[in-house]
Amino acid sequence: MSSEVSLKTPFIIQKFDSIDDFIKTIFPDIESYMKKQLLSNIQRSNLDTIVYSELERNLKLFIVRNYSKDLDEYIDVKARHASKEAMKDVLLSTISITLNVSDESSRKLSENDYLFSLRKIINNVKL
Question: Whole-model pTM?
Fold first, then answer.
């Protein structure tokens, strides 16, 4: 898949050139992570599902690292009456790489879209 993808949340929208670009942006050390997994005797054929889980976790870290101010401002406006930290946890728990990322046709990306791209990255990882 080489079409543009967009991360859409209530507080930010960010476009990426491709799904591969999205993956490498939110998980910049993906190749070293894969190498460590392979060196710990994880089979290449199983690596995509392991990395997929880590990719989901990295999306939340990416958002917190890069958009904390936007997230805080959104919560200040939308949930003044509630605990800021509780609202942040709730909002972050609803953001996922399948629900909030879509291609240029506005089709939500599926796990298979990511697995296809992850397999390409895995095939290029050299030990």
Answer: 0.89
56-88 pLDDT, tens digit each:
999 999 999 999 999 999 998 887 777 888 999
How big is the CA angle at 70 (ends 66 and 71), to the nearest 5 degrees?
Answer: 90
Two tokens, residue 68: 């904390």
CA distances from 15 to 29, 37, 106, 114 (A): 20, 29, 12, 16
Buried b (16+ CB within 10 A) or exposed e, 95-114: bebeebbbbeeeeebeeebb
Distance CA 49, CA 114 (A): 10
Coil vs helix vs strand at 51:
helix
Residue 49 burial by Cβ neighbours in a 10 Å radius (0-12, 13-18, 19+):
exposed
pLDDT digits (tens, 9 = 90+) for 84-117: 889 999 999 999 999 999 999 999 999 999 999 9
Query: CA-based angle 78:84:86, to the nearest 5?
Result: 110
Distance of alpha carbon 70 from alpha carbon 64, whole angstroms: 10
